Amino acid sequence: MAEPEVVLTATELLQLLRERWRASYDLRLVQRQGRLYFQVMWGHLEQQSFPLTPGGYSERLAEVAATLNALGAAEQVRAWLKTTRDKPRIGRALSLALSVPSARAVEFLL
């Protein structure tokens, strides 16, 4: 029997971002052509022009983490954030195509 996936939290996401790139990058879940992508955007909380407040940023991380957990993609994202060699740059987000069971993905692909 497979072990249950360890839950990904907003705090862990923030820690992974700061350990990897020393910045609190914005995160998004995006749907394109019937697939779901986890994206690390180029904007980050430490920028003056960042549109979210620290509280709003924390809420966004919590929402993204909850959705990743519901999709069963937490470990996939965790591993990718620890190993990707790319770095977000102005105008270019990093994207990870999520591998999720179609039964779970269908409720997010509306």
Could you characterize the architecture of this molecule?
The structure is a single chain. The protein has 110 residues and is an alpha+beta fold. The protein has a single domain, classed as 2-Layer Sandwich (HIT family, subunit A). The chain has four helices and three strands, in the order αββααβα. It has helices at residues 10-21, 54-71, 74-83, 102-105; strands spanning 25-32, 35-44, 94-97. It has a three-stranded antiparallel β-sheet. Strand 1 (25-32) and strand 2 (35-44) form a beta hairpin. It starts with 9 loop residues before the first helix and ends in a 5-residue tail after the last helix. The relative contact order is 0.22. The model has no long low-confidence stretch (mean pLDDT 90).
CATH architecture, please? Answer: 2-Layer Sandwich
Specify the biggest β-sheet: 3 strands, antiparallel
User: Can you list the strand order of the major beta sheet?
Assistant: 1-2-3
Q: Span from first to last CA?
A: 32 Å
The CATH H-level homologous superfamily: Protein of unknown function DUF3067
Secondary-structure element pattern, one letter each: HEEHHEH
Total tally of structural domains? 1
Shape verdict: globular
The proportion of residues forming helix, as a percent range, comes to: 40-55%
**How many β strands by DSSP?**
3
Question: Radius of gyration, rounded?
Answer: 14 Å
Q: Say what the CATH topology is.
A: HIT family, subunit A
Identify the CATH class. Answer: Alpha Beta
Q: How much strand?
A: 15-25%
Low-confidence parts, pLDDT < 50 over ≥5 residues? none
- If you average the pLDDT, what whole number results? 90
Structural class: alpha+beta
Instruction: Tell me the number of helical segments per DSSP (H or I, 4 or more residues long).
Output: 4
